[in-house]
Amino acid sequence: MKCFLIITVAVCSCVAVVKSTHQSTLYDKCLYNQSVVSLDLPPMALRRECIELFSLDIKNNLSTYNITSEASLYIESLLRKVITDISPGHRGKRQANRWSRREVRTLTPREWRMFTGRLNRLKRQRLGNSNRYDAIANVHRGTVLDSAHGGPNFLGWHRVYLLVFEAATQFPTPFWDSTLDFHMVDPTQSVLWSSEFFGTGFGTVNDGPFGRWITPGGISLVRNIGNGGSLISRDGVRNVLSRTRHSQIVEPTNPLFGIEAYHNGPHVWVDGQLSSPMTAAQDPIFFLHHAFIDYIWEMFRTRQRRNGIVSALDYPRVQNSLHQPGRIMDGWPFIRGLRNIDGYSERFARISSYSTSPNCARCNNPTWPFPVLQCDMANRRCISAPVPPQDAAAFASATNRGVQVTRARSSVARIGPLPIGGKFLSVFSDPRTRGDTLPYGPLNA
């Protein structure tokens, strides 16, 4: 445990800080971070806030998940890249091009392979006794499970998390618009669950770009799509966008308008590791799903700006102490200048942009050798195409769905209940789901 001796002396509006060289470095980092992301605090207040931060026991603001020193340094380096990108006057690659996130089915095969190739490279790159991908995934554990869920910090924290992820991949994260699948007759037949995109939807993930991935718990990725919960509907998106203030769409709120409530549904619908807050980020689908949630949020913020509302300051006051605007964000070891409200900053918002999700006017992608999107002419909406012919023979049809469900359950039978801890709760339930959620047990790693 590191101890810090900080002595403050106020003379003529000055602050003197006595600290070691190492402490000085951390203090300077805090000042730098605060000056970059905090638009509403004068310099004197920034210094005072950083002094107060280092007067606290550092352990109080670290995740209760025991992150290794190698992982801590790696995550810090990624967040440092993000902080640099939002620095005044900095025009790095991301800012110059303003990376555009696109719906996954609008990527070319080459772009999709490039993205997934970078994820697999992170998975292969050793970091102590783990790897770089798992180090990023493990940030979504410990106190983060409480301080980044169930309140207004949900949106800002996950925005920063996406940017940290992109600092590692150096590629704009595609988003998974699950409304394109929800409005199919059978969403489990989506092209996304083919070997060309997300891979296996039922049972152990053996094919696709994430086939045979092993999680930190020592088991394979497992899915059981369509078991429960719900993908997001267009009506759900419209409901969120019909509100004007963040207090109307973040917890606690009416789930009919709650962006976090809609977010929970696909986690449950996919099942497996993605269905648990403690293991969700182990499945790369996590980041594509959260990119879509962030896209919905950015559409909401755009409407706020049109109505003269300053989104960066529209942070709701709630009773939950973990979600207070001035509280330091959890999950970022030794980067102690980021507060919950800073996740709402325009400086973070400006790093990325979004290409509009497909509609019937732009509902094709001829770069793929098979259809990936199609227009539902009866309802005038773009939806996902079904699995391609080369996968169809091995894919369950509506008449032999039991084969796929059995495959999912047999995967669990070999290892016992999935050691993933508790699951997300979805207030929305698609009547087309089967109600056969996979059994799960306590987290083992």
Automatic annotation (TrEMBL):
SUPFAM superfamilies named among the record's database cross-references: Di-copper centre-containing domain (SSF48056)
Keyword Metal-binding: yes
InterPro entries xrefs: Di-copper_centre_dom_sf (IPR008922), Tyrosinase/Hemocyanin (IPR050316), Tyrosinase_Cu-bd (IPR002227)
Listed Pfam families: Tyrosinase (PF00264)
Superkingdom field: Eukaryota
Keywords carried by this UniProt record: Copper, Metal-binding, Signal
Ranges for domain Tyrosinase copper-binding: 149-166, 283-294
Signal sequence coordinates: 1-20
Matching Gene3D superfamilies: Di-copper center containing domain from catechol oxidase
One example GO MF annotation: oxidoreductase activity
Stored PANTHER family: TYROSINASE FAMILY MEMBER (PTHR11474), TYROSINASE-LIKE PROTEIN TYR-1-RELATED (PTHR11474:SF126)
Protein name stated in the entry: Tyrosinase-like protein 1
Species annotation: Mizuhopecten yessoensis
